[in-house]
Each structure stands twice: as structure tokens, then as C-alpha cells.
Design brief:
The chain has about 500 residues and is an all-alpha fold. The chain contains 21 helices and 2 strands. It starts with a helix and ends with a helix.
């Protein structure tokens, strides 16, 4: 009975987590940014929605790839009164980020066994210091959050066919929104793993341990031994050891590969314009330290540049080195599934940063030789994306080091002092993420802090349409562009 009540509370807890994540994302924006239309939301996406209709825009190429979810969000905003367009887009975007947080919490349960640490992991997309500056609360940047979700969705081993199909739909939406999700396609192999041979994250081990403990306490009592064996077998089976369970990875695999093919064809047929040249490797690495790494605990990324110019690279290399120790230690002592996730998230973080520099900056900024003036450079949206992946990998590594089962196994695993140091380092990582949540609740500076507020422009636009019925379209100011608004939409 107690177990049934606990199981019934899990969905409610997941919903509550999603609601709290949504509320925090909304609160961190502030009233002006969430009332301001940003970039493509009022430009390309809105203009093409008006011109092409709700269906033809969904897979319409832009900047070399398709943007399914942002276009769906713009469709929703356009279907509602024009006065609420900015707030609908902001609220829906925050809601989707809350959904990502809830899904990460559920999908990571086989790797991060402690639910409080899974809450920390799920909160990363919301509490990341750089998130509100540009990528949070608008549809144009929702594709970055797909990168946080897909590693867990690809590697997850669904328990039921209904769950597998639902997860396949989520994966299709994510891959058809962000082409860099293909970086994580190798993780699909984890979804096909046989649960009877190292299956779901400790599920088999826990089931076997449960049965073994019951058998050990029986002390010769036949019925207790049988009961312990039965419970152990049932526990292991319930965690993914059912014969043929690997086939439930099929919907996710098909959705991921089909979406990747669509993105590839789109890139080949509608290539993205790029700036000539490529950044030097040393600038890629130095920029990674100064932006995604430093921005993972301080939204003022210019402070890192100032500190390096004044005191040398040690101010960044020392904390980055400590973080690297935690990541390497988790790969050394952790089980294979945790190792794969840590490696995938960290390498994916670096790849996203590098690919974005190549696509957006050409030769780029000489990060390896910073000067004081570079402190005034604003944060980049792709630094936030790389930072989310890096911090997620750090939390998984911390959870691995804090799990006593990963230290107590035989085969030469380190223990004693190494376990203590690993636990302390892991606690520091978790504390850094939790601190972000505590100190960044209040709205900070964003690229939309100065407006313009969308709804404030409606009365003048309505008057202009009434004054000249042949006008057809009026222009609204948005950040940083302007937006076409049909008079027919204003009349609705």
C-alpha cells in the first residue's frame, strides 16, 4: 500500500516540477522582456506565417534548417488576439522549457538515481545564469533547449510501448527544431541495450541486490528464500529486463533518424550563409573558457575577461581544472551508462560552441589574446547552449561520485580518501548549481530589457488601420527588428 501511494505521487511531483520550472523561467524574464517580441518571432516566423499559412510554414527552411516547434508557437500566438502576442509567445516558451525540465527529470532516472540530484539536473536549463539574456522566453531560441533534452531521450529505455511512441513524438519535434541534435545520435544505441546485461541504470543490480538480501536474511527458511528470489527477479524485470524490451527503442530511433534526414536534406538544398574563414583552435578553447565555462556561474561574462587581463589565465583555469577533475573522476568510477552520458554532454557542449562559432563568426574573436575592451562584448546565445550541456554533464558527474554504490564495487575501484575528495568536489558542483537558482530569481539584464513593449503599440496601429482602410498592414517595432501586422489581425 505504501509503495502504491509513493508511485501515485510520482506523476504529481513531475507536474509540480514542470510548473515550478515554468514559473521560475517566467519570473527571471521580468515584465518588459516577456512583453517584447524578439527577433524571428516578429520577423521571419511571423512574416512567413502570414504569407504562407499555418501548414506550409512548419517545415519551411530558414537559415539552413527547419524550426518546427518555434513555428508552432508562432502559430499559436497568431491565432490569439494581437494584444497578447508577445506574452503568449513568452509564456508558451517558458512552459516548453518547464516541460523539458520535467522530461529530463523522468528520463534521467536510470542514470541519476537520487531524486534530489535529478531535480538539480532538471533545473539546469532554467537556472543557468546566461539563459534569460537572450535564449529564454522566446520561440526563436527554443531550439537550444532541444539539445538538453535529446541526450536523455535518445538513451532512454522505455518501459511501455505507449511511452515509447510518446517519446518518439517528442524526439521528432526536437530533431526537427535543432540540427545539432544529430551530435547525440550514437546515444540511440543505449536505448537498444539488453536490460538483462547491465540494463537500466542500476535497475537490474538493485533487483538482484534486493533478492539477494531477502535470501540472505532467510537463514535457511525456504519460503523466505523463494520470496526474496521472486521479489529480486520481479524488481529487476520491472526495471527493463523483460524479453524484447529493446524493441521499444524503435519509435525513438525512427523519429530521430527521420528528423536527421530532413535536416540534412534541408541543409544541402538551402545552405546557410556563412562568414568566410574559421576560428583558430586556441581561440575556440579560450572562448569556451571565457564564455560557456565562466558563464555557467556568473552572468557577467565580461568579468571573466577583465580578471584574465588583470591576473592571468589562472583565474579561469583553476576552477575549470577542478571541474575537469570531477568529470574525469566520474568517468573512472562510474558505471558505463553514466560514463557515456558525461562524455556525451561535455563533448556535445564543446561541439555546439565550435559549430556555432564557425557558423556565425568566421575567423571570430581572438579569445586567446583578450584585451580589456573585449569585456564589453555581450553574451552569445550559443554560449548559453554550450553552458547548459556542460553544467548538465557536471551534475551527472557529481551524482555519480555521490552514489556510494559506485565506490564500493570491487575490481580495483578507488576508495577511502579518493571517495571523500570525490564527494566533496561533487558537493561543490551541486552547490554551485543550487546557488545559481537562489541568486538569479530576480530579473536581470536581457536583450529585451529596453522593449519595445508590443501591446503598447496596438492602439496607434488600430487607429492607423481605421484611418486608411486600404493600408492592409502596419509595422510594429520589435527587438531588434520590426514586424508586419495585418489590419485584419488587429480587427480580430
Amino acid at each position: 500500500m505504501e509503495r502504491a501511494r509513493g508511485a501515485a505521487g510520482v506523476p504529481l511531483g513531475v507536474v509540480l516540477l514542470g510548473v515550478l520550472a515554468t514559473a521560475l523561467a517566467w519570473a527571471r524574464l521580468g515584465p518588459v522582456p516577456r512583453s517584447t517580441v524578439w527577433a524571428e518571432d516578429g520577423g521571419v516566423f511571423l512574416r512567413e506565417r502570414i504569407a504562407l499559412g499555418p501548414l506550409d510554414t512548419l517545415l519551411h527552411p530558414y537559415a539552413g534548417y527547419v524550426h518546427l516547434v518555434p513555428r508552432l508557437v508562432v502559430d499559436l500566438g497568431y491565432a490569439l488576439p494581437v494584444t497578447r502576442y508577445a506574452q503568449v509567445l513568452s509564456a508558451t516558451s517558458c512552459l516548453l522549457v518547464g516541460l523539458v525540465a520535467a522530461l529530463v527529470f523522468v528520463l534521467s532516472r536510470d542514470v541519476v538515481r537520487s531524486w534530489p540530484l535529478r531535480v538539480v539536473l532538471a533545473a539546469v536549463p532554467v537556472v543557468l545564469p546566461l539563459a534569460p539574456y537572450e535564449i529564454s522566453g522566446n520561440a526563436a531560441n527554443l531550439h537550444w533547449y532541444a539539445l538538453v533534452l535529446v541526450p536523455w531521450a535518445f538513451a532512454h529505455r522505455s518501459r511501455t510501448w505507449w511511452g515509447a511512441v510518446g517519446l518518439g513524438v517528442v524526439v521528432a519535434c526536437a530533431v526537427l527544431t535543432e540540427p545539432l541534435t544529430v551530435l547525440f545520435l550514437p546515444l540511440l544505441l543505449l536505448g537498444w541495450r539488453d536490460g538483462r546485461h547491465g540494463g537500466a541504470a542500476g535497475g537490474t543490480a538493485r533487483g538482484t541486490a534486493h533478492g539477494a538480501a531477502a535470501r540472505g536474511t532467510a537463514h535457511g527458511a525456504a519460503r523466505d528464500t523463494a520470496g526474496g528470489t521472486a521479489r529480486g527477479t520481479a524488481s529487476g524485470t520491472s526495471r527493463g529486463t523483460a524479453p524484447g524490451g529493446g524493441l521499444r527503442a524503435l519509435p525513438v530511433t525512427v523519429a530521430a533518424l527521420a528528423g536527421a534526414v530532413v535536416q540534412l536534406v534541408t541543409t544541402l538544398t538551402h545552405p546557410r550563409p556563412t562568414v568566410s574563414g574559421a576560428p583558430a583552435f586556441r581561440d575556440v578553447v579560450a572562448g569556451y573558457l571565457l564564455r560557456p565555462v565562466a558563464g555557467s556561474w556568473n552572468p557577467d561574462v565580461g568579468a571573466a575577461v577583465t580578471a584574465v587581463v588583470a591576473h592571468g589565465w589562472a583565474v579561469v583555469l583553476v576552477p575549470a581544472g577542478l571541474l575537469l577533475v570531477v568529470l574525469v573522476a566520474a568517468v573512472v568510477v562510474g558505471p558505463w551508462h553514466a560514463r557515456w552520458m558525461v562524455v556525451a554532454l561535455v563533448l556535445g557542449s564543446g561541439a555546439v560552441w565550435w559549430a556555432a562559432l564557425v557558423a556565425n563568426g568566421g575567423a571570430g574573436i581572438p579569445w586567446a589574446h583578450p584585451v580589456a575592451a573585449m569585456a564589453a562584448l555581450p553574451p552569445q546565445r550559443y554560449a548559453a547552449a554550450a553552458g547548459m550541456l556542460l553544467v548538465s554533464g557536471a551534475v551527472v558527474a557529481a551524482a555519480t561520485l555521490l552514489d556510494p554504490d559506485h565506490w564500493s564495487r570491487p575490481a580495483g575501484r578507488p576508495g577511502g580518501t579518493a571517495r571523500l575528495l570525490g564527494s566533496v568536489a561533487a558537493c561543490c558542483v551541486v552547490a554551485a548549481v543550487v546557488t545559481s537558482a537562489v541568486f538569479v530569481v530576480a530579473p536581470g539584464e536581457t536583450r529585451r530589457s529596453a522593449g519595445p513593449v508590443w501591446a503598447a503599440q496596438v492602439p496607434a496601429a488600430v487607429e492607423a488601420c481605421h484611418a486608411d482602410p486600404s493600408l492592409g498592414v502596419v509595422r510594429f517595432r520589435s527587438a531588434p527588428w520590426s514586424s508586419p501586422v495585418p489590419c485584419s489581425w488587429l480587427e480580430r
